[in-house]
Amino acid sequence: MPEKNIIAWTAMVKAYLDNDCFDEAYKLFLEMPERNVRSWNIMISGCLRVNRVNEAISLFESMPDRNHVSWTAMVSGLAQNKMIGIARKYFDLMPHKDMAAWTAMISACVDEGHMDEARLIFNLVPEKKVGCWNTMIGGYARNGDVAEALCLFVLMLRSCVRPNETTMTSVLTSCDGMVELIQAHAMVIRLGFEPNTWLTNALITLYSKSGDLCSARLVFELLKSKDVVSWTAMIVSYSNHGHGHHALQVFASMLVSGIKPDEVTFVGLLSACSHAGLVNQGRRLFDSIKGTYNLNPKAEHYSCLVDILSRAGLMDEAMDVVSTIPPSERDEAVLMALLGACRLHGDVVMANSVGEKLLELEPSSSGGYVLLAHTYAAEGQWDEFAQVRKRMKERYLKKNPGYSQIQIKGKNHVFVVGERSHPQIEEIYRLLQQNLQPLMTEMGSTLENMLLVD
């Protein structure tokens, strides 16, 4: 090229960055005889994209002129590199904040779980666009603050901002009861959203979790363009409710439609076989993961296969499967499945072997200790039971208390073992005493033992 102008120099720098040649791009940038604001912005963005934060800050501080793109690039890049403190510093210094900068700063706080700080920034946004609302609503939903997610959604509607599919997906996943789910679904319809894949997949999963398989299947059938997630959601729904044969029928229809299963699909299928006692189908499906679909079985798949075999009493075959699992895929769940089967079938010898392997693999997890202790207790081996409990105490391990929940008139009631904080707890205990005491006495137990189990 006889004469290189600033446009050509900048294009070459960008080309190097786009092809992951950072050092060459940086060297060329430093050699440029002159630079405009676009040159600086491209190089700064390139630095931040590969986590070269110090170089980015140095270049930014050296810039003769900056525009809103320069500031936004710094804030967004620093936020994406989890450097929230420095990002906030530049954000506060921005002379004119655009929506991209506001959203980037809010997203960074949300991703780190700093919801209070994210909300403070969100409240300062002068004209909130739908993407900004989505970031906050989705953040609350992901961080488990369901009530705040739904409250913010109501505030969004009152602010005359029309939600989009992303908003509604976050709202749906925030619904923790059938009443809220039906209301959210009704709003999806009322707002005129077409049955798209994202929304429908969320609806299938949520209706299933709420126990309404009929609605889950209806939503699934109405979806014209089903992807692998849609089919898998329906398979998992049937699996979770113990309808193994229905899950396999959906899988057959999935294959006819030309959609290939993925790893999650097989977890649902194998789980369905386990719940329904379909041993031969489970074996064939597991073998097809690698043999037919060229996927590598993961720990979840091995765990399901072990569960299928051990539930059927095929303990030796289950143990053989465990011995063939690659070390990278051998986790607590696989051994827990086998140990649970040992308890079910009263196989204390194998339980002792599996339990020791489990405690060696996960010495800080209480689950293995508890299950092994219960196995010994079920067989009346109280000395071994006491030894396991002693080891738990020495490691300061404690089992997380169990809980149950029920929804009555649209309100969720949660009951935790040993907790008496429910406002009607005395009345509840009185009713249990009246109605269950005769039954428990007849079964050779007592209500107190049932309620105080740890």
From TrEMBL:
A Pfam family: E_motif
Listed InterPro entries: E_motif, PPR_At4g14850-like_plant, PPR_rpt, TPR-like_helical_dom_sf
Ranges of the PPR repeats in the UniProt entry: 5-35, 36-70, 98-128, 129-163, 227-261
GO molecular function, one term: RNA binding
Cross-referenced PROSITE patterns: PPR (PS51375)
Gene Ontology biological process terms from the UniProt entry: RNA modification
Keywords: Repeat
Listed PANTHER family: PENTATRICOPEPTIDE REPEAT-CONTAINING PROTEIN
Protein known as: Putative pentatricopeptide repeat-containing protein
